[in-house]
Design goal:
heterodimer; A: about 110 residues; mainly beta; 6-stranded mixed β-sheet; 3-stranded antiparallel β-sheet; 11 strands; B: about 110 residues; 7-stranded mixed β-sheet; about 0% helix; about 50% strand
């Protein structure tokens, strides 16, 4: 079964502390994984995707096929990082673009 | 560009009533999606469309119907609303499969 698990509903850290939002997936095949973010009163938007191997707003995520994980990391959290983060897996057949989302993790960065 | 817009923003329905949620995109995207967002469950795909005139079921399609008569619009219908359909509904579109999905602002629906 195709599944995405984000084990933490809430992650609370102080400004300047490192952040790691966990994401594990279940998928038979080569996965395509994404992180989406929803800031307060804004719409959901793409943060990064694993195939781009990019760093956005200081966040990085590495696909670990052995551990079936795609954790989101940032070395020094900022207050403006406070948001809901969703890990997503492109599932189904290759031509539908369907995304399977995790349950979401709320990141709270305290001053 | 307005991007993806959703109408209405809020709605309260009584059990058994019907309604249609409208999603419109002005980016000429082929693919469109309807999700519902519930606490602790993330976003779940209701229905999707890979092009004008096509629709397909997602993860939680029961109680909903959709239509994609025009490329820019994707309608989600509730024929007989139930309290279990209380949720926030998001529409999204993408240029092609595997590309970034662009989301609308959401519709908060309460069924009493």
């Amino acid at each position: 079964a195709q599944r995405v698990t984000q084990p933490e509903k809430l992650l609370s850290v102080f400004k300047g502390a490192p952040v790691e939002l966990k994401c594990n997936y279940s998928y038979s095949g080569s996965p395509e994984l994404f992180w989406y973010v929803q800031y307060s009163r804004q719409r959901l938007q793409l943060l990064l995707r694993h195939i781009s191997r990019e760093s956005i707003k200081g966040f990085t995520a590495d696909l670990n096929k052995g551990e079936t994980s795609f954790h989101l990391k940032k070395p020094f959290a900022q207050e403006e990082d406070s948001a809901m983060y969703y890990c997503a897996l492109k599932g189904g057949s290759s031509n539908t673009g369907k995304l399977i989302f995790g349950q979401g993790t709320t990141l709270q960065v305290k001053p | 560009n307005a991007g993806v817009t959703q109408t209405p923003k809020f709605r309260v329905l009584k059990t058994g009533q019907s309604m249609t949620l409208l999603c419109a995109q002005d980016m000429n995207h082929e693919y469109m999606y309807w999700y519902r967002q519930d606490p602790g469950m993330g976003l779940r795909l209701i229905h999707y469309s890979v092009g004008e005139g096509t629709t397909a079921k997602g993860e939680v399609p029961d109680g909903y119907n959709v239509s994609r008569l025009k490329k820019q619009n994707f309608l989600l219908g509730l024929e007989s609303a139930a309290p279990s359909q209380t949720s926030v509904y998001f529409c999204a579109s993408s240029r092609s499969q595997g590309r970034e999905q662009y989301f609308g602002p959401g519709t908060r629906l309460t069924v009493t």
